[in-house]
Design goal:
The protein has helices spanning 2-31, 34-43, 47-61, 64-76, 82-95, 97-105, 112-129, 135-159, 161-166, 177-191, 194-206, 212-225, 227-233, 239-261, 263-273, 279-298, 302-309, 332-357, 362-365, 372-378, 387-409, 415-450, 454-478, 482-497, 499-511, 518-547. The longest helix is centred in the C-terminal third of the chain and has 36 residues, at 415-450. The protein starts with a helix and ends in a 5-residue tail after the last helix. It is mostly helical.
């Protein structure tokens, strides 16, 4: 039963820790105004300042793990570059030795649990009290993220507190110092705190349970064990985040290997500097010396290390386009052909986006013979999709198409190809306008779906009807149905001239005092957006009648 409880506590602590990392990074992005970005860049614009920032923050927070996680979050949020993050971590390795000095000199250690409660309490209360969209609210949410990270770390430590308290190094005496280094690594990896494990060895030294050499090897191992926290923090992160964690690992492991190889000379150096000090103070000095030596060895090569790390964790470029990314603009005829196909791809994406926005599956909406009223009645529930992600995808395609058109326009081509290129640019612009009209309706559609009055539901049905009929007519015409061209034109005219019916719906909404007054204005705006959407699709058809000739 105790083992199960231990596992649940450790697993829960890990979950809090990882969620806190993701949440913190999200909130940093949301709260990072220009002033904050300038401050972070100022504090980390040189290797020296970054190193001092890491050292100072670790000395204050008494946790190199937390400072490392902060660096990972900042680099994940795009507020710090790789070289600065590496420098901060180097500084954190020196700053973490402050805890050993405090333990050795005054026996004081910060209670991270109280810190986590304070961060979650202040951040949570402030977030509830402030309005949505406030930058201060995002800042307070970031505090909650910090608190969750602290809470997760503390949870992992507490789950193994029985192990830490009952772990008697006196029972494990080995001839090789490497075993003590391995134990130090293991203890730190488990309890997620080199400061805590060094405090354990300082207690053992004070009680004369272990010798100084064994304690020194243990400290070296515990220094390497802190890399586990950074590795966990980089899970699922950006490539630079993973590179930073790898830099932390390489620095601590290489420093540890050098320290173990030169352990006896280091101990002699400590004895020369503080010959009369007790073992607890001397172990703190040794911890400080080999971390400073490690930084001195690596500091000149931070730029080279960052450059070398760029070779790893390369994220394969995701192509949102289907055709143009593999085609050279040096061959205009082939490029135009690929461009037309890409615009057809964009057409499909815009159609699907519009249909998803009114919660009708595209494969159902574009199927022949299904009555419009049946579609509206069958699919009347809000799908709760990530519409903004769908729109962002469309925007990326539009951007790539416009970039391709710009590059292609620099090539030598005949007048006919130039005209087709102009048509392609205008078509893409109209498709962008159509998608933007639907995007601007998304929030309003949610409000209409939430409306309980008959008037609101009647307006919603009318709005969905307009969008659905526009897409269906456009789809048929796009596939070459000659009658659909005329149908699309007639339907657009009907939308443009249907204000009388629409104004009646709006008047009904205005009369019902149970409906929020702003819904009247929202209704007028949505009608304009629906008209803009239909007009844009009509214009796309006019341009494509000429452009499709490029395929032949």
């Amino acid at each position: 039963m105790e083992q199960l409880k231990l596992f649940i506590e450790a697993f829960s602590g890990l979950g809090l820790f990882l969620f806190g990392m993701i949440y913190l990074e999200t909130q940093i992005k949301a709260s990072a105004g220009r002033a904050f970005k300038r401050w972070v860049r100022y504090m980390t614009d040189t290797h020296a300042k970054s190193l001092l920032a890491g050292l100072g923050a670790t000395a204050i927070l008494q946790s190199s793990s937390v400072v490392t996680l902060m660096a990972l979050s900042l680099i994940g949020a795009g507020l710090m570059n790789l070289e600065s993050a590496i420098s901060v971590i180097f500084g954190a390795n020196i700053g973490t030795t402050v805890t050993a000095w405090i333990v050795g000199l005054v026996g004081f250690k910060m209670d991270i649990r109280i810190l986590s409660y304070a961060f979650v309490g202040i951040g949570g209360l402030g977030s509830v009290l402030l309005e949505d969209g406030s930058r201060w609210r995002s800042t307070l949410n970031a505090m909650v993220g910090f608190g969750l990270i602290f809470m997760g770390l503390e949870g992992m430590k507490e789950s193994f507190s029985g192990f830490a308290e009952s772990f008697d190094l006196g029972e494990y005496r080995f001839e090789s110092l490497y075993w003590y280094a391995l134990i130090g690594f293991g203890v730190t990896a488990v309890i997620q705190s080199s400061s805590a494990s060094i405090a354990i060895i300082q207690s053992a030294l004070f009680a004369h349970i272990v010798g100084f050499e064994a304690a020194a090897a243990f400290v070296v191992g515990s220094n390497v064990g802190t890399t586990v926290t950074a590795m966990l923090g980089a899970i699922g992160g950006s490539p630079d985040k993973k590179r930073t964690a790898l830099a932390h690992f390489l620095f601590n492991v290489s420093t540890g290997i050098v320290a173990l190889a030169a352990l006896k000379p280091l101990i002699l150096l400590v004895d020369m500097v503080l010959p009369a000090a007790d073992a607890v103070i001397r172990i703190a000095l040794l911890h400080t010396i080999f971390n400073i030596l490690g930084v001195l060895l690596w500091y000149p090569f931070i730029g080279l290390l960052a450059k070398w790390l760029k070779r790893f964790f390369k994220r394969e470029k995701e192509h949102v386009t289907h055709y143009i990314h593999d085609v050279s603009t040096d061959l205009p005829d082939v490029a135009i052909d690929a461009l037309v196909k890409e615009i057809a791809h964009l057409v499909d994406e815009v159609q699907n986006f519009a249909l998803f926005a009114i919660n009708i599956p595209p494969e159902k909406a574009l199927k022949e013979g299904v009555p419009v009223d049946k579609l509206l009645d069958t699919f009347d529930e809000n799908m709760q999709l990530s519409y903004h992600r769908l729109y962002a995808h469309i925007r990326r395609i539009e951007g790539e198409v416009f970039r391709f058109i710009t590059e292609l326009s620099r090539q030598q081509m005949d007048e006919m190809l130039k005209q087709k290129l102009d048509k392609a640019a205008r078509t893409t612009t109209y498709l962008a306008t159509a998608a933007k009209a639907i995007k601007d309706m998304l929030h309003d559609l949610d409000r209409w779906y939430d409306g309980e009055s008959n008037e609101e539901q009647a307006f919603l049905r009318n709005l969905r009807y307009q969008i659905l009929k526009s897409v269906q007519a456009f789809h048929k015409a796009y596939d070459g149905d000659e009658k659909a061209y005329e149908e699309m034109e007639n339907f657009y005219k009907r939308i443009a001239e249907s204000y009388r019916n629409s104004l009646e719906l709006i008047a009904d909404i205005a009369k019902n005092r149970a409906i929020a007054s702003e819904m009247t204005t929202i209704a007028i705006n949505d009608l304009h957006l629906s008209k803009s959407f239909s007009k844009s699709l009509r214009n796309v058809l006019k341009e494509l009648q000429v452009l499709k000739g490029a395929v032949s």
